[in-house]
Specification:
With 367 residues, this protein is α/β, with parallel strands linked by helices. It is built from 15 helices and 12 strands.
């Protein structure tokens, strides 16, 4: 299962957000730096209204959602690349995840300490990114030392790696993340050997106060960060109210919905953050159903029908013959499987078919 790491400066709401995502109180979330030392890990269901609508049509009594893993990582401080704070331990935990959820504090609260003494989410973002960049430059330096002899004897692979490292070093030294450097697919495959931190896909979680959630789009800090990350990284920023979400954990779904209505919202952004993180990891969903359940399955974007079949059962991939395919919305709009077949919405696809997000699949196989 792929992992998304929750990162940021201390006391920006990382552990509170982690608890909210898990709908639990697993991670300590106190008002002091380095409250989290060892990473907390939890598996999270991916909210998907499509699955619920599909289950209603096919009359499946049980629903099984797709899932991803979130990791709550200790707060980083300026100088982490040189060992400040939790330093190398923090960076090693980031190295182990597949994507990053970078939490930025976009609210004032005199009762919640901020390690820099003031609220400036773009400055906080740049502090974290600068430390990741410095760590990547050190990684490239170590890798060059490792292959130095191969470079001297003009080994083709080593020369290619050295040329890529030079481009990356120039890019990183200009203050840009590795993920923003345009590379060919074959070059991207080589850069994976460098294990860079800033090469990981990232989404920003903009943490606001409970009373500000209904008008978050008008929050000046939110507006500035959204513009900044889109301009400099071309990535997404989702507004969340971590403390509110954490408090909703103790309420029933009905009570939580009523409370949100009082605040003037239907959701706080947590579901959107989970879904966006799922896609950030390069994951897509297809559905299956039978008389017992409707289920969401996870595949990588671009996976073919046999690979999707193998996710359900290895025998399905080994003996794959074909797949019956229908888009989830076509099945829901038809109102029944029989009607969907009558109207020609079902089609047959073979081994080369690239499964699309939202496909409903029925596999035909022989072992």
């Amino acid at each position: 299962m792929l992992k998304a790491g929750i990162i940021g400066l201390p006391n920006v709401g990382k552990s509170t957000l982690f608890n909210a995502i898990l709908r639990a109180h697993k991670a300590p979330a106190e008002n002091y730096p380095f409250c989290t030392i060892e990473p907390n890990i939890g598996v999270v269901q991916v909210p998907d209204e499509r699955l619920e609508k599909l289950a209603a049509v096919v009359k499946a009594p049980r629903i099984i959602h797709a899932a991803i893993e979130f990791v709550d990582i200790a707060g980083l401080v300026k100088g982490a690349s040189k060992g400040e704070g939790l330093g190398n331990k923090f960076l090693s935990h980031i190295r182990e995840v597949d994507a990053l959820v970078h939490v930025l504090r976009c609210f004032e609260d005199p009762d919640v300490v901020h390690v820099t003494g003031s609220i400036d989410p773009i400055r906080d973002l740049e502090i974290v990114n600068a430390e990741l960049i410095l760590a990547d430059l050190e990684s490239l330096h170590r890798h060059r030392e490792k292959i130095a002899k191969d470079i001297k004897r003009h080994d083709k692979t080593a020369l290619l790696e050295d040329a890529l490292m030079q481009r990356l070093e120039q890019h990183l030294n200009s203050g840009q993340l590795a993920c923003t450097l345009k590379l060919y697919p074959e070059e991207l495959a080589v850069t994976r050997n460098f294990f860079l931190l800033t090469d990981k896909p990232v989404i920003y979680a903009l943490n606001v106060k409970e009373q500000d959630i209904s008008a978050a789009a008008l929050n000046p800090a939110v507006q500035r960060v959204r513009e900044y990350v889109q301009t400099h990284q071309g990535c997404e920023a989702v507004v969340i109210a971590a403390q509110l979400e954490s408090e909703l954990v103790d309420l029933s779904p009905e009570e939580a919905l009523e409370y949100l209505k009082e605040l003037g919202v239907t959701e706080t952004g947590l579901s959107a953050l989970i879904r966006s993180t799922y896609h950030l990891l390069g994951l897509r969903t297809f559905f299956t159903f039978n008389e017992n359940e409707a289920r969401a399955w996870t595949i990588h974007a671009g996976a073919t029908a046999p690979k999707a079949a193998g996710v359900v059962h290895t025998d399905f991939e080994r003996g794959f013959i074909k797949a019956e395919v229908i888009k989830w919305n076509d099945l829901v709009e038809s109102g029944s499987v029989a009607r969907a077949r009558e109207t020609g919405h079902y089609r047959t696809e073979g081994k080369e078919y690239e499964v699309q997000d939202g496909d409903v699949l029925l596999f035909k196989f022989h072992v």
